[in-house]
From TrEMBL:
It is an enzyme of class 2 (transferase). This is Hexosyltransferase. Pathway: Protein modification; protein glycosylation. One of its GO terms (molecular function) is UDP-glycosyltransferase activity. The keyword S-adenosyl-L-methionine does not apply. The lineage of its organism: Eukaryota, Metazoa, Chordata, Craniata, Vertebrata. The keyword Membrane applies. Its EC number is 2.4.1.-. It comes from Channa striata (Snakehead murrel). InterPro entries: Glyco_trans_31. It is found in: Golgi apparatus membrane. Belongs to the glycosyltransferase 31 family. It comes from the Eukaryota.
Length: 451
């Protein structure tokens, strides 16, 4: 009986279990040990990296760390550079056009002019935390105070404008203008305007390099505000009106013509261009103290239009002397001075100096997007801010010499034939340079642009 019990089916089935349990216990123990050690290490790492945890939710720029992925600078920022006045105002606008908070803007290409203008006005009332700006306001230079006091105004009446056309041009144009020369000037700078009219600013058909047939029609317009009669000691309004009637190239608005109001000239010009210059392909925008190699520029622009990808690139086309990642000037004796209570952060890439070239298509896009970008005291930087919100970027070209020639290059026979722009030149210098260009045209016919 006992032997039968020992080898019964029940006994046989139980035997393997009793043998297996003692052998598996060490394995379980080892697994538990490894799990405990792993948990302890993970908890230690979490504690060690606790100081970095907050950076996962704020994007102050590109974050590089071996345990974090890089964060692009375009990520949403929860802390808009402290209490800087412009940054706070602009953040209120940008939030309304965030593709995350308002997907319809990105999905439908939504651009509502009335909404944008309304948001600009509304942001001045919504910005409540402006303590730092208010506290330092009286200590700022007068020009900063004047700008801040009026930066909510951007719709000024037109005083003088060409008669329903896109600037001055030839009466017998047989095609749409290739290039509109847009020059920022002041009422008292008549000599500068006249020198430009007689040299690189001539209108009508302009042949390209070597007098080739691949030229284009050129038009011209000067942009002005109103100078203070007290500072000038004379009223130039009647003379300017007569100048506008004679040349047909004066476009003036009723705002004070100061350095910080140059941005208003851009904003108002984009609006005017959208109304009167529907067929113009390109714009040169510059100051009245620069030299422009117009024939070479005509050839360069024609070459851009011949490129296979031209149709796709023209809506973003801008070329000049590009300045990237520049710091604001904090020297309070500089005309470019921007206090950190007004703006913090780097400037976006922008085409600086005395001149830039961009497409007519881009001008219309800049007109639209400018309605949701707060005015900024430096005009070149403001254009860069608008470009940034269009996700368009200016292209750098070495032929734009915004800080003049390098030392030895200026004395070369064909130096001016190799550039598109040189800054800066007086009216008498413009006349001499233009004459030199004509005299050396044959000798320098085959030179290429600076690279």
């Amino acid at each position: 009986m006992s032997s039968q019990s020992q080898f019964s089916p029940q006994a046989r089935s139980a035997a393997p279990h009793s043998l297996f349990c003692p052998s598996i216990s060490p394995c379980i123990f080892v697994v538990v040990l490894f799990a405990s050690v792993g948990l302890f290490v993970c908890m230690s790492m979490d504690l060690a990296n606790d100081g970095l945890e907050k950076t996962n939710f704020i994007a102050p720029g590109t974050l590089r760390h071996k345990i974090h992925a890089s964060l692009p600078t375009t990520f949403w920022k929860l802390n808009p550079h402290g209490e800087a006045y412009w940054n706070q105002l602009q953040l209120l606008i940008d939030r309304n056009f965030s593709p995350i908070l308002h997907p319809k803007f990105r999905k439908n290409g939504f651009e509502n002019t009335v909404l944008s203008e309304s948001l600009l006005r509304q942001s001045f009332f919504e910005a409540s935390d402006l303590t730092n700006m208010t506290r330092n306001f009286d200590e700022m230079p007068q020009k900063i105070q004047d700008f801040v006091s009026n930066m909510d105004k951007r719709d000024y009446p037109t005083v003088i404008q060409p008669d329903g056309v896109c600037g001055a041009g030839a009466k017998d144009e047989k095609g749409p203008p290739l290039l509109l020369l847009v020059i920022k000037t002041t009422e008292s700078n008549f000599k500068n305007r006249q020198a430009i009219r007689q040299t690189w600013g001539e209108v009508g058909w302009v042949a390209g390099q070597n007098g080739s047939s691949s030229g284009g029609y050129v038009r011209r317009v000067f942009l002005l505000g109103k100078e203070s009669q007290e500072e000038l000691g004379v009223d130039l309004s009647e003379l300017l009106e007569q100048e506008g009637k004679h040349f047909g190239d004066i476009l003036q608005w009723d705002f004070q013509d100061t350095f910080f109001n140059l941005t208003l000239k851009d904003v108002h010009f984009w609006s005017w261009f959208s109304r009167f210059c529907g067929q113009t392909r390109f714009i040169f925008k510059g100051d009245d103290d620069v030299f422009v190699n117009t024939p070479k520029l005509i050839t360069y622009l024609q070459d851009q239009l011949q490129k296979p990808q031209a149709h796709g690139t023209m809506p973003d086309f801008m070329v000049g002397d590009v300045i990237g990642a520049a710091f604001p000037n904090r020297m309070n004796n500089s005309k470019y001075y921007i206090p950190d209570s007004f703006y913090k952060g780097l400037y976006p890439a922008y085409a600086g100096g005395g001149g830039v070239v961009y497409s007519g298509l881009l001008s219309r896009r800049l007109h639209d997007v400018s309605k949701r970008v707060h005015l900024f005291p430096i005009d070149d930087v403001y254009v860069g801010m608008c470009m940034n919100r269009l996700e368009a970027y200016p292209v750098h070209h070495p032929a734009f010499l915004t800080f003049d020639f390098p030392e030895k290059e200026a004395n070369e026979l064909c130096s001016y034939h190799r550039v598109l722009l040189v800054h800066k030149r007086s009216p008498s210098q413009l006349v001499r340079v233009w004459s030199h260009m004509k005299e050396t045209q044959t000798q320098c016919s085959n030179v290429t642009l600076r690279e």
